[in-house]
Design a protein that fits this description.
This protein has 196 residues and is mainly alpha-helical. It contains 8 helices and 3 strands. Strands 1-2-3 form a 3-stranded antiparallel beta sheet, with helices on one face.
């Protein structure tokens, strides 16, 4: 049962089995809707990892972290169902190659997601993949150089500077015509970070 939408106040609309839409407007309604969703998934799914991860997400105190982790969960839940072991949210975050890192605070992931949504849809996929792979290489290189690597904003700023230099020396670094969209993405990302 997917969450159909989340508004700016973190109220969400859930589509239940009976096809009735219910929108929560208070914290108690949100908790009730989430618990209803959790119970429904538990009753339908024989993979205990699903319920465990949803409980972890539900217990997060920061609503933006919760929102971004729910988006991540919805993106990977089909893989969790196929997993033959005990999977938890930390394993998912640490095993996912993304830019910014899935372990980044929710406000960083949200700022990036909102910036990405402003790009033409035709550009999002290859830019997202290219940046994720480049970020993974960038982090691995930093680790091999014994640099301390974490999810701080300075790491993301250093990565964006690295990409900017690569684009300046090769405008088609991540694909033909992508450099202008990457610059727009990074500018919007930095602007969004100041808002959150």
């Amino acid at each position: 049962m997917p969450i159909e939408s989340i508004d700016s106040n973190n109220n969400y609309t859930v589509n239940t089995n009976s096809n009735i839409k219910s929108t929560s407007n208070s914290d108690s309604n949100k908790a009730s809707a989430f618990n209803d969703k959790l119970n429904e998934i538990i009753s339908k799914d024989d993979n205990p990892s699903i319920a465990k991860i949803l409980n972890e997400i539900n217990n997060e105190t920061d609503p933006v972290d919760r929102e971004e982790d729910m988006i991540l969960f919805n993106d990977v839940k089909h893989m969790i169902r196929k997993a033959s072991g005990n999977v938890n949210l930390k394993m998912i975050k640490e095993g996912t190659i993304t830019f910014p890192s899935a372990t980044a605070p929710g406000y960083v992931r949200k700022a990036y997601r909102k910036a990405l949504e402003k790009l033409p849809e035709s550009q999002r996929g290859h830019i997202t993949l290219g940046l994720a792979l480049e970020y993974n290489t960038f982090i691995d290189s930093a680790k091999n150089g014994n640099a301390k690597v974490n999810s701080s904003l300075s790491v993301y700023e250093n990565f964006m500077n690295y990409i900017e230099k690569a684009i300046n020396s090769n405008p088609d670094f991540l694909g033909s015509g992508s450099s202008q969209h990457i610059r727009i993405l990074f500018n919007n990302f930095q602007s969004n970070l100041q808002m959150y």
